[in-house]
Amino acid sequence: MLPQNCTHFIVVGNYGSGKTELSLALARKLRKEVEGAVALVDLDIVNPYFRSAERADLLRSEGIEVKMPSFALTTVDVPALPAEIQAVFDPGRYERVVIDLGGDDVGATALGRYYPLIQPIRDRVCMLYVVNPYRPLSGTEEDICALFALIAQRSRLKPDMLVNNANLQRQTVAADLIEAQALLMRVGERLRVPVGMVTGYERFRAELPAAMQSLFFPLEPLMLPEWLEDDQA
Predict the structure, then answer these.
(1) Whose CA is closest to 48, among 82, 90, 13?
(2) 49-88, pLDDT tens digit by residue?
(3) Interval 106-155: pLDDT, tens
(4) HSE on the CB side for 136, CA within 13 Å?
(5) How far is CA 35 from the centre of its chain?
(6) Helix extents (H) in 50-173
(7) How far is Cα 83 from Cα 97, in angstroms, rounded to an integer?
């Protein structure tokens, strides 16, 4: 599912794609699997509704270092990126790093300033493009490919895999993931990028075709809005 040689995972996608949920889950999983230091970097400089920094206390309690822009979790939207973020690219300093980018081209532009630091370790970096085709501007091949191209241009990095994170919050069923997989397979052929991960509630795994089960990464949301948290099954 995830390349074994990768030490850095960069998670990108449209607003509402679920990239922050995946970043949180991935960091927590890696923390359980490796002995060395693990860090999650919140590079969302736009300060939208959902950001991984909101779960900083939980992550730190589990032994994950959290790094974020200077004005994260405030009402000030200033693109201030602290110098300490550069440390996550130092060879050998961290066993694993997960970078949660802001949505669309703004997040990709923020990542682009770190390109000189990423390029020397590019063979150990895995860039995941998360897609939820049930979100606006993500429902067609053209939309998905257009954002892919924009992210690649602004970040100067081409995503390495597509992530099928099709969901309708608590109304999601396994059939939604199966339908989305057909769409993303067509997108992958156009972009020459594989669909490398399928995410969703653990209960969906048994309902998926074998090929999708082999790519499955269970995801239990941590960032649900309060009005949905009150209605959990």
Answers:
(1) 13
(2) 446 767 888 999 999 999 887 654 444 444 455 677 888 9
(3) 778 888 888 999 999 999 999 999 999 999 889 999 999 999 999 999 99
(4) 2
(5) 22
(6) 56-61, 104-112, 115-118, 141-155
(7) 16
